Amino acid sequence: MKFYDREKELDVLRTNWEQTSERGRMTVLIGRRRVGKTTLLTKSSEGSEQSFLYLYVSKDNERVLTGKFQEAAEQSLGFQIFGRAETFAQFFEQILRYGQQNHFTLVFDEFQNFLKINPAIPSHIQDLWDRYHEKSKVNMVACGSIYNMMHRIFDNEDEPLYGRQDCRLNMQPFRIHVLKQILHDYNPKYTSEDLLCLYALTGGVAKYVAWLMDSKATTKSKMLRWATQKGSPYLFEGTELIMSEFGKDYTNYLSILQLIASGMNTQSEIDSIIGKNTGAYLENLEEDYGYIHRKQPMFSKSGGRNSRWQLDDCFLRFWFRFIMRNQALVEMERNDLLLEIVEKGYEQYTGLVLEQYFRQKWMEEERVTMVGNYWDRKGENEIDLIALNDLDKTAIVAEVKRQKRKFSPSELAKKVATLNKDLSKYTVTQRGLSMEDM
Fold first, then answer.
1. Range with the poorest average pLDDT among 231-235, 284-288, 340-344
2. What is the dihedral of CA 186, 189, 194, 199, to 10 degrees?
C-alpha cells in the first residue's frame, strides 16, 4: 500500500531536521505497534540530502547489539570506529563526536528495549547527550511502541532522560476521511458496509489496513474471509501484541481486556470474575498503556461512580470478541467455522462500532468542542451521541442505528427531555444517524 496522510507529522520531522544543522535535537515518537512509525520516519528523509542512520534496538546482548550498530553506521554513513566499541556508551559517544562535523538523522527504533538490554543505557545517553548535543548536528529520534516504558523513560522526573526531549509526537491511527480515501483507491464502488468493516477490523491502524488492501480484501465479505483464513496474521496478532506489552504478567491483563471487550465494563463485574481487586490493573491499562479509558456519561462530574471501562482499540475488540474466544477452532484449523461464527455475530457486534465511528467522525470533521454519549445512573436512557459546540451554543443529540427506518424521533425526544437542565443553554438538534450517513 502506498503512503497516505501524515502531512503534519512530516512537516514537524522535516523542520526538526533543518533545525539540527546547528545543534542537536531529540524527538520522541510514540505510537501503538503497527501504526506506521518506521514508515513515517523513512518517508521524512525522502527527497532531501538527509543522511539517515536507522538502528533497531533488538533484544540482544549489549555487545552484540553495539556491533550491529557499528556495521549499520558504516553502511549508512561511511563512519568507522577505530578500535571496536564494546559498549553502547562507547558507540554513542563516537557517533555524537562524528556529528560535530556531520549533519545526520539518528533513529533508535523500539527505544524502550534499551531498558531490557542494560537499564543503565538511558543514563549513559543523558550524560553524553548533555555533553555533546549543543556542538553536534545530530537529529536524534527515539521511537517506541510500548507506552508505559516510553512514558517512564521520558515523563518520569526521576528518570535520567526526563526533560531532554525537544519535540514529542504521538502517532495516531488514520482518521476516517483517510480510511475513505484508501478504500476508494482500492475499491471505487465501496459500500457503507465495506467502510464499517474496514473500520471495525483496523480502527485505522496503518499495517492492518495495508494487510487488507494489499490482499485485495476490499469488501466486507472478503475482509472477514481474509481475517479468519488459515495463516492470516489477524489470528496471532493479538497474542503477540499483548505479550510484547505486558511480558510475564500478560495473563491478568489478557483476562481483564477480554472481559471488557465482552461487555463487562464496571470494576465490580470484572473483580467478581477475576476473583480479586483489579483496580491497579485497570489503572495501569488506562494510564500506562492507553488501551482502555474510564468513560463517563456527558454532563456527569469527573470521577463519579457512574462510569464504564471501554476498550478503545477496534482491532483488539474484534480479536477478543471473535478470535481469542474461538482459539480452539484456530488450532483445529476449522477456519470455515470461525468465519461462520464471525458472520453470524457481525451485525450485532458492529452496532456499537458504528456508534464509535460516528463519535470519532464528529470529533474529526464537525465544529464541536466536546463529543460523548449519555446514560443515567440505572444504565438506562442511553443516548449514542451528544456533540456540543460551546462557541456557538449548539448541540447535536443523535441516536445511531444501522438502518434509518429503525430510528424513532419520539423515543429520542423522551431521552433528551431528561437532559433539559443540562442542555438548556444550547440550541439542540435531534437526529438519527445510520449507515447512510457514514
1. 284-288
2. 50
b/e code 170-187 from CB counts within 10 Å (16+ = b): ebebbbbebbbebbeebb
pLDDT digits (tens, 9 = 90+) for 300-312: 877 667 888 999 8
Q: How far apart are CA 366 and CA 358, in angstroms?
A: 11
Burial status of residue 429 (CB atoms within 10 A of its CB: 0-12, 13-18, 19 or more): exposed
**Predicted pLDDT at 303:** 66
**Tell me: the pLDDT tens digits for 122-153?**
999 999 999 999 999 999 999 998 777 888 89
Three-state SS sequence of 229-274: CCCCCHHHHHHHHHHHHHHHHHHHHHHHHHHHHCCCCCHHHHHHHH
Question: Which residues, in sequence order, are bridge partners of residue 138?
Answer: 104
Instruction: For residue 332, give the DSSP letter.
Output: T
Cα distance between residue 83 and residue 416, in whole Å: 74
**End-to-end alpha carbon distance in the chain:** 24
> C-alpha cell of 398?
443523535
* Cα 141 from Cα 323, distance rounded (Å): 36
> For the chain, what's the residue count?
438
Question: What would you report as the CA-atom Rg of the chain, rounded to the nearest whole angstrom?
Answer: 24
CB 22 within 8 A of CB 137: yes
Cβ atoms of 57 and 117 closer than 8 Å? yes
Retrieve residue 283's grid coordinates.
489503572
144 SS3 class = strand
Q: Which helix (H) or strand (E) holds 399?
A: strand 394-400
Q: Please tell me the distance from the alpha carbon of residue 2 to that of residue 178, in angstroms, as a whole number.
A: 12
d(CA 323, CA 318): 7
Q: How far apart are CA 207 and CA 229, in angstroms?
A: 18
Do residues 129 and 26 lie in contact, with contact meaning Cβ atoms separated by under 8 Å?
yes
DSSP secondary structure code for residue 101 in this structure? T
**Average confidence score pLDDT of the chain:** 92
Percent of the chain scored above 70 by pLDDT?
A: 100
Distance CA 220, CA 214 (A): 15
CA distance 150 to 153: 5
Q: How confident is the model over 261-288, as a mean pLDDT?
A: 89
Strands (E), 98-182: 104-109, 138-144, 167-170
Grid cell digits, residue 171: 502517532
